[in-house]
Design goal:
By secondary structure, the protein is α+β, with helices and mostly antiparallel strands. The chain has three helices and three strands; from the N terminus they run E-H-E-H-E-H. The longest helix is centred in the last third of the chain and has 10 residues, at 56-65. The radius of gyration is 14 Å and the shape is elongated.
Length: 86
């Protein structure tokens, strides 16, 4: 199971299992030594879906600007296996 989300609420309590995160990263990735730190990370994904021109970008930016959410940006997708080591 891969973790895919747009935003995660910082005050919610959901857990990602350590082995779940390891299965989404290559064994020899720069993040491999750090994956055990994610074992007890709490997340509550909020996924924003909608038709084109329906206001999803405005909603995304509004929620991101509150500072109450961790936002996934292009960097997180492109460098997914180097985020912890960077």
């Amino acid at each position: 199971m891969a973790v895919s989300c747009i935003l995660t609420a910082k005050d919610k309590k959901h857990f990602i299992g350590g082995d779940t995160m390891q299965s989404t990263n290559p064994i020899n990735s720069p993040d491999s030594p750090h994956l055990n730190m994610l074992k007890d990370v709490e997340v509550a994904p909020i996924i924003i879906l909608g038709d084109q021109r329906s206001g999803t970008t405005l909603l995304y930016k509004t929620l991101a600007d509150t500072g109450c959410f961790n936002v996934v940006r292009a960097y997180h997708i492109i460098k997914y296996d180097e985020i912890l080591s960077n």
